[in-house]
Specification:
There is one protein chain. The chain is globular. Strands 4-5-6-9-14-11 form a 6-stranded mixed beta sheet. It has a domain of 208 residues: 4-Layer Sandwich (Deoxyribonuclease I, Chain A). It has 321 residues and is α+β, with helices and mostly antiparallel strands. A hairpin with a 2-residue loop joins strand 5 and strand 6. It comes from Macroventuria anomochaeta. This is DNase I-like protein.
């Protein structure tokens, strides 16, 4: 039995240091992209930008391209936002609700090799899903940028009328169901599917330190529902049947992605951010590698650390996300 339940030392990817000639600080978005070898895609969750806040959206677009015009060898990026339009459940930072939102940042030269489109779903109003469609010849990949619902006892309100419709726990279960159905529709239409982001569920006991959250009981029920709907669920259950990429690659290793900023590093952490591959994508050996960049430096001002995955599409080289 594995008795080592402490956070294991990180197995680091080789990180290219920022050039001393650049005026872009390493902590910036542009600095992050440079440091990690210009990934083809960067998925951000809980960006906390209001739909009407065009100024901040433009600032993000400028930030991901800072210095690119001065150095033609460095790639340019485009930023696509999916932001909340729910007046009752996502009012804003100064209201009684929250601002959620996701942003999918794409390297522009992707469009030289693939057909690329970005859109969202019609059943979510909280800005939780961005779908990046990448296609070339017979290869079709749908990458879902996910900021899943966090279950709480707070009320969930009808997005049209404001009437209470249960709790955020209830909304979380409904989100799981709708997301699983969306993924199955895409696979049924011939698309390989990959989900990535903050799932707000630590899958099992290996994914929580010092222990997995088991109280109140609704968290246990939410976790079981997540498995049944989105991961390889129990026999006889209808679900998407996806593969937890990091766990499948790394087996019993214990690594974490959420580190509370209110506690000493490594004393309270969970693996709630990961990629889930559909069976089509996994069986096609599209996923080449994946990992977690778990360090205080990579966490920065967030309470989550980055994760990554390498994918081989219809060209010989791998694309990093």
């Amino acid at each position: 039995m594995d008795r080592d339940i402490s956070p294991p030392p990180a197995k680091r990817r080789k990180v290219k240091p920022a050039t001393t000639q650049s005026a872009v600080p390493p902590a910036s978005l542009r600095g992050f992209l440079r440091r990690h070898h210009w990934p083809a895609m960067l998925l951000l969750q809980e960006v906390k930008i209001a739909t009407k806040d065009i100024k901040t959206q433009d600032a993000v677009r400028a930030a991901v391209n800072a210095s690119s015009s001065a150095n033609s060898k460095e790639p340019a990026y485009e930023a696509h936002f999916t932001l909340p339009n729910d007046a009752y459940n996502a009012k804003g930072l100064r209201g009684s609700g929250k601002v959620y939102g996701v942003c999918s940042i794409l390297r522009r030269d992707l469009r030289e090799k693939y057909s690329v489109n970005v859109h969202t779903v019609d059943w979510d109003n909280e800005g939780r899903i961005s779908i990046v469609k990448i296609a070339r010849d017979r290869q079709r990949l749908a990458v879902f940028n996910i900021y899943a619902v966090n279950g709480t006892d707070n009320p969930y309100r009808d997005s049209r009328t404001g009437a209470q419709r249960g709790t955020r726990h209830d909304h979380k279960l409904a989100f799981h169901k709708a997301l699983a159905e969306e993924c199955k529709r895409w696979e049924g239409n011939g698309w390989d599917v990959l989900l990535g982001g903050d799932m707000n569920v630590a899958p099992d006991a290996r994914d929580g330190f010092p222990k997995l959250r088991m109280f109140p009981m609704q968290h246990v029920l939410n976790r079981a529902d997540f498995h049944d709907k989105l991961l390889q669920g129990k026999e006889g259950k209808e679900g998407f049947g996806g593969v937890d990429v990091w766990r499948r690659i790394h087996g019993e290793k214990r690594r974490y992605t959420y580190y509370s900023r209110g506690r000493e590093w490594g004393t309270s952490c969970d693996r709630v951010d990961y990629f889930i591959a559909g069976r089509r994508a996994w069986d096609a050996k599209m996923i080449k590698d994946g990992g977690i960049l778990d360090s205080e430096a990579e966490r920065g001002s967030s309470d989550h650390v980055p994760i990554w995955v390498d994918i081989a599409l219809s060209t010989p080289e791998a694309d990093q996300y």
